[in-house]
Amino acid sequence: MKRILDHLIYPPWRVRRAFPAATLKAIEDAVAASERLHRGELRFVVEAGLSSSELWHGTTARQRALEVFSDLHVWDTEDNSGVLIYVLLADRQVEILADRGINRRVGEATWQAICRDMETAFRDGRFHAGALAGVQAISQVLTTHFPAHGANPDELPNAAIIL
Predict the structure, then answer these.
(1) Given 49, 146, 159, 162, which is the most exposed site by the fewest CB atoms within 10 A?
(2) How far from the centroid of its chain's Cα atoms is residue 85's Cα?
(3) Residue 157 in 3-state DSSP?
(4) pLDDT at residue 80 above 80?
C-alpha cells in the first residue's frame, strides 16, 4: 500500500527539484562527451512514479526500464551498443540496461555496482553529482570494451528525458 501511495502522490515538482534544467543540461553534455570516447549510445531517463495500472500489475523498476528501453529504441544502434540509465524516483531505484552487443562483454554485476552508487548519491540528495558520476562510470566501462575508432556516429539523442 505504501508503494502505491508513494507513486500516486509523487508530485512532478519533486522531479524538477531533483533534476532541474541545469542538471538535465549537464547530463546531456556528459553523455555527448562520453559518446566521443566509445561506440556506445547512452540514454538517461527519469520517471517520477508508475501509473496506477502498472502498480496494480506489480510492475518493478526493472520491468519498466525494459519497456522504456524498447519504447525509446535504445536497442536500435549499429553495434547493438545502447545503454539506458533509468531512474524511478518514487522507488528510489536506478536500473541500467545494455543492449546485447555490450552484454556480451560486460557483466550484470558491473551495472549493478554503478546503480547502487547512483542510488546512494540520490538518497543523500546529490542528484546532479550522482547522475554525472553514473554517466562517467558507464563511459569508463564502454571506453574499455567499445573504444571509438573511425567513424563514430551519434545514433541516439543525448538529452535526458523526464517521463
Answers:
(1) 159
(2) 1
(3) coil
(4) yes
